[in-house]
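Listing S7. Sequence submitted for prediction.
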Amino acid sequence: MELSPKVSKLLDEIVQLNMLEVKELSSGLKDRLGLADLPSMPMGGMMAMPAAPAKAADAPAAAPKVEEKTSFTVRLTGFDAAKKIGIIKEIRTLTGLGLKEAKALVDSAPVVVKENLTKDDAAALQEKLTAAGATSELE
C-alpha cells in the first residue's frame, strides 16, 4: 500500500515516540475522536479473526501446528516501594529514558517496558528488573 507523503512523515514521527508519548497520543486521539476504550490489539497489530469451524471429516487429519514464539514483551507488573529509586535507575539504563519518563513509567505499572525482544534478551531484562526489586512478566 502506497502512503501519501503527509501520512509517511506523520508515521515517521510517531515511530520515534517513546512508550509514554505513545500512551499520551493514544489517550489524546481517543478523547478528540470520542472513542471508547477498546480491547488491546495483539502484538502483530491485527485483530485475530475467528477460525472457520473444521468439518468433521477434516478434524482427525488436521494436526494443530505449534508455533514457537519469537518476539517477546517485558511488562513491569509491580515493585517493592522501598526499592523504587533503584528500579527507576534500572529502567533508565535499560530503556534510555530520562529520569522523568522512567519515573512515570514505573509509577504507571503495570506497563510494557520493552517490546519485540528475543527470548534471551527478554529473560535478561526480566532478571535485571527482578534483581532491582521489580516484578515483571514475559508476554
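Caption to Listing S7: primary sequence and predicted C-alpha cells for the chain studied. The radius of gyration is 19 Å. Helices lie at 5-15, 19-33, 84-95, 99-107, 119-132.
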